[in-house]
Known about the structure:
Number of helices: 5
Strand content: 15-25%
Structural class: alpha/beta
Largest sheet: 8 strands, mixed
Helix content: 25-40%
Strand order of the largest sheet: 1-10-9-2-3-5-4-6
Low-confidence stretches: 39-51
Distance between the termini: 38 Å
Mean pLDDT: 88
Number of domains: 1
Number of strands: 10
CATH architecture: 3-Layer(aba) Sandwich
Shape: globular
Amino acid sequence: MLNYGFYNMNCMDGMREFPDKFFDIAVVDPPYFAGPNKRRYYGRSESTTLIKRREYDIIDTWDVPGMEYFDELIRVSRHQIVWGCNYFDYHFGSGRIVWDKCRSNMTFSDAEIAYCSLHDTVKTFRYMWDGMMQGKSVDEGWIQKGNKKTNEHRIHPTQKPIDLYRWIAREYIKPGWNVLDTHTGSASSLIAYHEAGIRYVGFEINEKMYQKARKRLKEVENQLSIFDLGVKR
């Protein structure tokens, strides 16, 4: 069985390393369309104001998972939060999380939806995520951050903010729980879990993205280590 950590490998191979219901919760964001592996940018190369969008490396491992993936995910985890559940033909329960991105344009979706096995209701998280406009904090996400120099750096075409996973860690992951992320991408999730002291296993199949995400995660780990050392002194 694998140890806790971040692995550059196929998540199907990785999940097979673990026994039934090993993970208390799986928080996953699997790809639900094949767009980003066909172009170097997410969406059009230029916006309606002729401002060139950020370009990303081509992701040639962007495979939309089938039923086998979800069956394996349910096997290894007791609870699940699955982003993009509305795009998959799988029998999810009725619980939902809606991430309201507080967007001011109509280019992309105004919100993203996740299945949540921990409740039967619909919960909403409001956090601005629209180009250079990013939320101020977990608790004031609908307010735009004043200093754009402190914006979260994007390295992945469908990157989610760290604050989204900080909120999930606070609201859904109980003390002592461990968590699985099968499609880690930019490592936003793992950064939030590391900050909260949550044990995790993360998989990223694309080697180039894995190296970028690992560097991003390591930078945060080093910063926290320096902070902890300063506090102890």
